[in-house]
Structures are given as structure tokens and as C-alpha cells.
Amino acid sequence: MSRKEFYSRDQGARLMPFSWFKALKRADGTGFLDDGLSRYGYLPNPDSPIPGLPVGFLAALDNEGGATLSITCAACHTRQIEIDGAPLRVDGGPGIVDLGSLFNDLDGAYDALLKDDAAFKPFAVSVLGGSPSEEAVKKLKGEVQAWYFPFHKIMFAGVPKPPATIWGPARLDAVGMIFNRVAGLDIGPAPNRVIEGNLAAADAPVRYPFLWNAAIQDMTQWPGFAQNGDDITGLGRNVGEVYGVFGIFHPTPTGDPLVPLDYLKDSSLNFPGLLRLETLIKQMEAPKFPGPIDRKLADKGKEIFDRPAKEGGCGPGCHQEIKGEPRLCNQNTWKTPVQNVETDARENLRLGRSGDTGVLKGQIVPQPPFNELQATDSMANILSVAVVGSIAQGPLHFGPMQFLPLVEECLRNEPISPPEKLEFFKQFLGSQLKGALNAIFRFEEVARPAYEARVMRGIWATAPYLHNGSVPSLAELLKPPAQRVASFKIGPAYDLANVGLAREQTKFDSYVYETTADCGGEKPDASGNSRCGHNFGTALPDEEKKALLEYLKSL
């Protein structure tokens, strides 16, 4: 039941009317959904309430009672690997999916549809049913054009096209697209709300993270800029994600000096769904290695793993399970160190973007020194204001009972006596909630370029490696960067001996990921595809590398 719910629980994303999606055709005349989106790597969901929709896709009810195509976190965080041709499903694993191609193909399909009246007529018949009048068809076309205007803007400006730094399977620039979505499509003047100058190429792709320890690591996002570790900070993490996948966000001035901006006007955020999904993520366990493990060799590998990094290990300060920063509702986080290990710098460089703050100008940035947003401000501040403002107004818009699970979870984790509970509840929905979200995004506090080092349970199932997915296996990661493979295919076929992607793949038309290795210069390699850095363990003797790999299989 938990798996079924995770695959199709609504979180509030609203991509397009579902009737449009069902009616959409590809260039060859076949239905866009005919293969269940398997051509992009999405996985079949036999329990989907809507037959044919893959894992992580659903038809959610919108504010008018219609059905809207929605994406939930399972779409990008469910993995299926193949071992000698046999499939193995890994819930919470990084998806081997090609979201960039899906977005580009949707953009192209709608562009072709709107340019061809002969193609639009059967589309209208499918959407409207029966024999629609010319007026009805004209009205529908106007609605499609209005929807397509911002969609095309973000796809044209944001999603790279070959031969640029494309995402490819198993990667995307999530942070870049969230910046584009919130600052480029949502905070401009009505009616279309678009600020084209805030759109930029989302060309710093990273691999999808795994979820089975996501709820308790004390920092999150690959550059480690977001506080994490309990349901409050987790809600901040997930609201930003929903906005990135086209949740409705229409911040609107109210004229009220006390509450000058309505962050949740027409909002599609599904707070109960987000809280439930976080609960399901907590229930995930790291997958067990599906092959034999030499326990004696793994024990030797553990000794190597526990060595200091300068001796070739993964020791203190990197990937061990160490108590992290306590949070308001969780005193037991795992430390997630954020360090510069000379890996690809591109994502960090992109964090410095600034833009027009639109209707958010003058709102208080919810982190010290609590300045007002200026007319031009950092994307980090824009996103922080959007996310924290939305959550802070949530109890007012949706009623405090919608947030009861969040409070109950906090009470379970904090030893509070009965007389204090009522006061705690009041504070939680007011200043404490907002206070707990302060400084969620703290880009400036870490020496850059730097990325998080996560606890490595289940690491065997999460290839390719490094934050940008530039190394296909753990065996390759233990080689010096210059000796790591320069290119490799991406797909579900797995190599248990080398712990990672198999050399030969048949999915994605045998897509090849080309990497770079301009290592050791004055400036770090920032191609987006660099295999440089993380030199730990690369000088170990072969027999010690073998032992370390055996231990990593066992985590």
C-alpha cells in the first residue's frame, strides 16, 4: 500500500489539463502517452488510478474540478535496474529518466499543434467530445495558446538543446529550473506574470539524489544550501520542488499593509499530500545488494573506509553516520558535510544568479539580517521568500487542521509536557514555524565550489556517481580522474562487480554521456560534465580497492 501511494500521491504539481495530454499526438501520429512514457525511462505503474500513466504521474483534480496532469516525487526518485536482464525496482532510487527530452518534446508537440489548424481540429474533438462548434474550438485554442505562452518561454530559454550542455538520462538542472519557474513565470505582472529577463539556461545538470536518508540529513541539495532534518525544513524543501514542476504560484498584492501579499492565491500546493509523502520517504530503507558479499573482505574494506581521507579512506568528516545539527522537531539528524573536493563547479557558479523581484519586491528575506527584497536581488532570496511566505500563510489559507500531522510529528519527537502543548501548538503555527524556516537557503555560508557528502547506505544502487553523474561506477571512482572513462552509456543495465552502470546499454538509443577532465588548473572545471575531483582512495593498492568496494556493497 505504501508503494502504491508513493507512486501516485498528489503533491500539488499542475502541468496541463489531462484531457489535452491524452489528446496530444507525436510527429508520427501516435498518441503522446501511447507507450506510457517508457521512451523517457518512466516506469509502468499497474496500480495507477488512470491506466497508462507511469510511476509518479497522476491526473489530479484542479480548483475547478477538472483533471490536471501532475507529477509527484516518485517520477524522478524511483529506479529500476537490470541484472543480467532481470529487473529490480528500487523505491527512492535516483530515476534513470530523461525529463529534458520529455519537456522538449512536449514543447515541440504543442508548437506544431498550434501552427496547424488541420491538426488542431482532431485535438479539439478529442478534448471537447462530440462535434464541437467553431466557437468552442476557437475558445479551446485560445486556452491552449495562453497556457503555451509561459510553458514555451521556460522551455525555450531554460532546457538546453544539443549541442549545448544537455541533461540527458539520469540528470537534470533542478535548481536552475526552480529559479526559472518561480522568478521567470510567477512573479511578474498579471495577466501572464512572465519576466523573461529572469529566465536563463538551466545548464548545470546533476544526478537525481536517492531518498532513503533524505528526511534526516541535516543539509540538502547537492551544494548543501538548504537546511533539512525535520518535517518543517522538509516542507520547505518540497514546496520549492512543487513550484519547480509547475505547481500554481500566483503571489498577488492585497493592498493590506498587515499582509501585503497573498502568496497562496489560487495555489495548488497540496500540504497534506506533501506531509504524507515525507512520511512515506521516512519509511524507505536502503536497498540490499542483490549479489553475494565476501564478508571477510568487506570487514577489511570497513577498516579502509574508516581511515582518514588523506590515507585513502572515507573517514571522519565525509560519509560516516555522525550526529548532525539538531532541528526544532528532530534532535537526531545525520551530519551532511559540505566540502570542496574539486569536482565540477558549474552548479555552484549558477547559484549566484540575480533577477527582477517583481511583485515580491519589499518582502522580508527570512534570514539574517532580514532585509527587504530589492528591485533586483539574488535568486536565492527570491526563492526563499516564495517558499517561506507560502508555508507561513498555509494555516491561514487551508486551516490549521491541515497542518496537524506536522505538529503531531513534532510533538512525538520533542518531550513536551501536557500543560505546554496548547501553547506549543499556537507558537508552532505562528512565530516558531516561521522562525524554524529562517535561513533555509544559506548560499553564502560555504566556501565554494562545494557539495554535500551523504551517508552511503545503499550507494551501490545509485550510479552514476559524483553530484553531476560523471562517473559510471564505484570502481571507476577509485581511479584518478584522468584514468576514469571519458564517455559511457546510460541505462538500467547494471554491473555488480564494478558496482555501477554496465558498459553496454540498449535504452535511450544507447545515449552516450561525454565527460571532461580539465583538472588541476587555476580555475576548476565547470563544464557541467567534469569527472574531476574526489581523489580519495585513488592511490590505494588494487587489493585494498577491491576490499573497499566489497564493503560499499554491504552498506
From TrEMBL:
Keywords, alphabetical: Heme, Iron, Metal-binding
Cytochrome c domain residues: 60-148
Gene Ontology MF term list: cytochrome-c peroxidase activity; electron transfer activity; heme binding; metal ion binding
Gene3D superfamilies in UniProt: Cytochrome c-like domain
Domain of life: Bacteria
PANTHER family on file: BLR7738 PROTEIN, CYTOCHROME C PEROXIDASE-RELATED
UniProt protein name: Cytochrome c domain-containing protein
Species in which this protein is naturally found: Methylocystis heyeri
